[in-house]
Design brief:
Elements: H1 2-14, E1 32-33, H2 34-42, E2 72-73, H3 80-96, H4 105-120, E3 133-140, H5 149-158, H6 163-176, E4 181-190, E5 195-205, E6 213-228, E7 231-242, H7 249-256, H8 262-270, E8 275-283, E9 287-291, E10 297-302
Antiparallel strand pairs: 1-2, 3-4, 3-10, 4-5, 5-6, 6-7, 7-8, 8-9, 9-10
Length: 303
């Protein structure tokens, strides 16, 4: 399966598809983690001493010592003002850095701080179940094309042992297609059909110096399943191009509904479709912040 993914990465790297003020630090109020609250109630009447047959000789359970990031829920209504200020600053930085593509190191650090504070002030329980709707990408801490289930699947199939190979291939793909322009990048979360749809608008120059560009939207669909309050499992299904400006070709693509069955290709070659993980640690009525398996984050606003 990894050989298939490596070949696919090489093809992508050579192709013509591309990814396209100082901040005020606020002191946040204490937040309540749903997992911490559960753990606290669970230990209310426990003995302080470990039993001889206890496989974990400690006053705490193993899950209490886990360093894995969990979603927090802020129940203080007064923190809404702080959230609005943080979001305003984040949107400003997103705009002046072209979704993070042109961000300096200082600006990147400011965004990380803003995102971290917002995640600590998340007002919504079970974000994975409450992210229904259309979302537009406004900031990405990595290449924006990696928000698509197509590239999430490639990263997943490479695994941790080949993470550096995947990162290098993504960088090569990005550099090889820098002449392309990225338009709107969207995600449609359809909770009713348990589906996530990624839309990626591209404009690619045919020849250097000629004012002729091929445009289109790359659409990738994936099955979606919530497995934790903040976590989706995504299984890529298909990819297609829509809205091309090439005469006759655009009509053919739109009318035929021609798709590349990515999921079936994985299944035929390796016997299974790779499962990707996307975690949402912040969502409200107008903004969503999600992270991939490598902790890269994507900030979306309601479309």
């Amino acid at each position: 399966m990894q050989q298939f993914a490596s070949s696919l990465l090489c093809i992508l790297a050579a192709g013509d598809v591309a990814s396209f003020s100082p901040s005020t630090t606020f002191t946040t109020r204490p937040t309540i983690s749903t997992d911490a609250a559960y753990a606290s109630s669970k230990h209310y009447n426990t003995n302080l001493f470990s039993m001889p047959d206890d496989p974990y000789p400690s006053d705490y359970d193993v899950e209490d010592l886990s360093t894995e990031k969990k979603v927090s829920v802020d129940i203080d209504e007064d923190d809404a003002i702080i959230r609005d200020e943080l979001k305003r600053e984040l949107l400003l930085l997103s705009s002046v850095t072209n979704r993070g593509q042109c961000a300096s190191q200082e600006e990147e650090n400011l965004v990380v701080d803003l995102v971290t504070q917002l995640e600590a002030l998340n007002p919504t329980a079970d974000p994975a179940l409450n992210s229904q709707g259309d979302w537009e990408l406004c900031y990405s801490s990595t290449q924006s094309f990696r928000s698509s289930p197509f590239f999430l699947a490639i990263r997943s199939i490479m695994g941790e042992s080949n993470k550096s190979m995947a990162e290098n291939a993504f960088d090569i793909h990005d550099r090889a297609t820098t002449a392309s322009r990225v338009g709107k990048v969207r995600q449609i979360v359809d909770a009713g059909n348990m589906e996530l749809i990624s839309e990626y608008e591209l404009s690619v120059g045919l020849l250097p110096g000629l004012p002729v560009r091929v445009k289109g939207t790359v659409i990738t669909s994936a099955d979606m399943r919530a497995i934790a309050p903040e976590t989706w499992e995504l299984t890529v299904k298909a990819t297609k191009v829509k809205g091309s400006n090439v005469p006759f070709f655009d009509q053919y693509l739109d009318d035929s509904g021609l798709e590349l069955p990515v999921g079936e290709a994985y299944k035929a070659i390796s016997g299974s479709v790779p499962v990707s993980v996307l975690k949402t640690f912040y969502v409200d009525e107008g903004m969503r912040i999600s992270r991939d398996v490598d902790d890269n984050f994507f900030v979306f606003t309601r479309a």
